[in-house]
């Protein structure tokens, strides 16, 4: 199942020619993020961000992800969005479109755009999330069901109940009736019917 927790990327290998200074900074930032010392992470932004200038590599993307998580943790949602969008741009440039990391970015952006009331962006990233999760996990997967359920809530918040109903109906086809994911989508479909006054 996809984890709702906002995950800091762990770099297992491949630092190679990366700047030792950035490597050291990343290690420290990663430890602070794991300890949820978000204020301490944010305090290092002015020191670390110049090291990311013109960089196009996985370490840069992972570092930006930590800053996004930290700002989300202190409820500076607009700034978190900026960092996650920056990470998204880096991941795209690195060819990491159909990856767990990219899916997590889209989930985080969909959630955070929804929090700040930017529903058009929420819908855009939500639709992209479903497209990526379909390719990554398949439409009948628990991960897809989780993302679909969340996206249905997004559509309801947008006031687009008809689109939510259509998406839920189409989604049900992809799941075995005996699976818990089917029940999850079916319950959401019933909620949508209640909102439309249909029983």
Can you give a write-up of this model?
The structure is a single chain. With 199 residues, the chain is mostly helical. The chain is built from ten helices and no strands. It starts with 19 loop residues before the first helix and ends with a helix. The N terminus is likely disordered.
Distance between the termini: 31 Å
Beta content comes to under 5%
State the helicity in percent bands.
Answer: 55-70%
Order of helices and strands: HHHHHHHHHH
Radius of gyration: 19 Å
| Structure annotation, total helices | 10
Shape, please? elongated
Structural class: mainly alpha
Task: Give the integer mean of the pLDDT values.
Answer: 86
Number of strands: 0
The low-confidence runs, each spanning 5 or more residues with pLDDT under 50, are: 3-19
For the largest beta-sheet, the strand count, sense and barrel status come to: none
What is this structure's SSE topology?
Layout: H1 20-34, H2 38-42, H3 45-48, H4 58-73, H5 77-93, H6 100-115, H7 119-137, H8 142-158, H9 161-172, H10 180-196
């Amino acid at each position: 199942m996809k984890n709702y927790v906002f995950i800091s990327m762990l770099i297992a290998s491949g630092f190679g020619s990366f700047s030792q200074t950035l490597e050291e900074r990343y290690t420290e930032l990663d430890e602070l993020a794991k300890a949820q010392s978000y204020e301490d992470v944010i305090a290092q932004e002015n020191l670390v961000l110049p090291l990311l200038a013109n960089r196009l590599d996985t370490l840069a993307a992972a570092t930006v992800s930590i800053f996004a998580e930290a700002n989300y943790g202190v409820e500076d949602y607009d700034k978190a969005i900026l960092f996650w969008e920056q990470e998204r741009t880096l991941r795209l440039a690195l060819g990491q479109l159909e990856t767990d990391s990219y899916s997590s970015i889209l989930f985080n952006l969909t959630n955070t755009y929804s929090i700040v009331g930017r529903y058009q962006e929420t819908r855009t990233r939500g639709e992209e999330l479903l497209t990526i999760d379909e390719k990554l996990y398949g439409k009948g997967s628990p991960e897809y069901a989780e993302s679909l359920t969340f996206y249905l809530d997004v559509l309801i918040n947008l006031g687009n109940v008809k689109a939510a109903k259509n998406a839920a109906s189409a989604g049900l086809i992809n799941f075995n009736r005996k699976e818990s994911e089917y029940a999850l989508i079916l319950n959401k479909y019933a909620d949508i019917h209640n909102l439309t006054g249909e029983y």
